[in-house]
Amino acid sequence: MAAPGKFTEKEINPLVSLDEWEEDVLQRYPDPDTIAKEKSKEEYRNYDEPSRDTVREFYRLNHTHQTYEFVQQKRKDFLQFNRKEMTVWDAFNFLNQLVDDSDPDTDLDQFQHLLQASEAIRADRHPDWMVLTGLMHDMGKVLCLFGEPQWAVVGDTFPVGCAYSDKIVYPEFFKHNADYSDPVYSTKYGVYAPNCGLRNVSMSWGHDEYVYQMLKDYLPEPGLYMLRYHSFYAWHREGSYDHLLDDHDREMLKWVKLFNPYDLYSKCPTPPDWKQLRPYYEDLVAKYLPSTIKF
Ligand SMILES: [Fe+2]
Ligand SMILES: [Fe+2]
């Protein structure tokens, strides 16, 4: 792995904003309701728009550099949580520094996305820990503010240390990954035992694993699965990697699937009224989370 200094800015951050990745996911997995109501499938599947190139480049970098070794290094570094300690509310302000001024079409800041997801979950009367999961699920994107490249923060996640599924978006880019021709990592099970359970599998490094590790002592198990695997589309949308799952993963899959539409389809043009909602969320955060969180 080359030192970060050896990468040019484009090689680190090809996306104009992190939202470009999410917009691409939305094109791949459009809201069934929206398709029915408003847009034709053709419109969603328009792969010729300019953002396709930056997203493609983003995945080329992601698939090239997310090796087993890279993931272990990042885990060793970031899972010490020795960078910052903040209240949840300060952490939202910190996360909102990710707002991208160069992109006027980026309609909502990071906090608005989190609040819209959590409000949509609350409106459907799911348990309060799931509302909190919605509020916190992208907190791991602060990795960008610690200088991490976009391809090590967002993007679909996938197991490393074993063969890549062809259900992962842009699978052709994996041939540039050093693990692709490794005698162990390139095999079906790689470093893992059959059906070892996802808890024993290293996922490509990004905001999912980071926020899971940050909050693993504070939320119920289904919420932790939502945090940890919400970008693992090859599993929860495409049904791949069954050979690594155990029965507990299969049981938890329904929760990850339940969560996904709130992440993808909860954007609404009128932002929630934060002033009015604040007391509810202050109580909710105080109920489950400690007064400060370590980053
Ligand atoms: Fe996310
Ligand atoms: Fe999200």
Structural write-up:
- This protein is an all-alpha fold.
- The chain has one domain.
- Helices cover 46% and strands 1% of the residues.
- It contains 14 helices and two strands.
- A two-stranded antiparallel sheet has the order 1-2.
- Helix 8 crosses helix 13, helix 9 packs parallel to helix 11 and helix 10 runs antiparallel to helix 11.
- The protein starts with 8 loop residues before the first helix and ends with a strand.
- About 3% of the residues have low confidence.
- Bound molecules: fe (ii) ion (2 copies).
- One fe (ii) ion binds next to loops.
**How many structural domains does the protein architecture include?**
1
Helix proportion range: 40-55%
Mean pLDDT: 91
Structural class: mainly alpha
Instruction: Give the helices and strands as they follow along the chain.
Output: HHHHHHEHHHHHHHHE
Cα-atom radius of gyration: 19 Å
| Number of distinct beta strands | 2
Our count of helices gives: 14
Q: Catalogue the ligands.
A: fe (ii) ion
**How much of the polypeptide forms β-strand, as a percent range?**
under 5%
Please outline the major beta sheet: 2 strands, antiparallel
Query: Which regions have little confidence, pLDDT < 50, spanning 5+ residues?
Result: 39-47
Q: State the separation between the terminal residues, measured CA to CA.
A: 24 Å
The outline comes out as: globular
Biggest sheet: strand arrangement: 1-2
InterPro entries: Inositol_oxygenase
Protein name: Inositol oxygenase
Keywords: Cytoplasm, Iron, Metal-binding, Oxidoreductase
Subcellular location: Cytoplasm
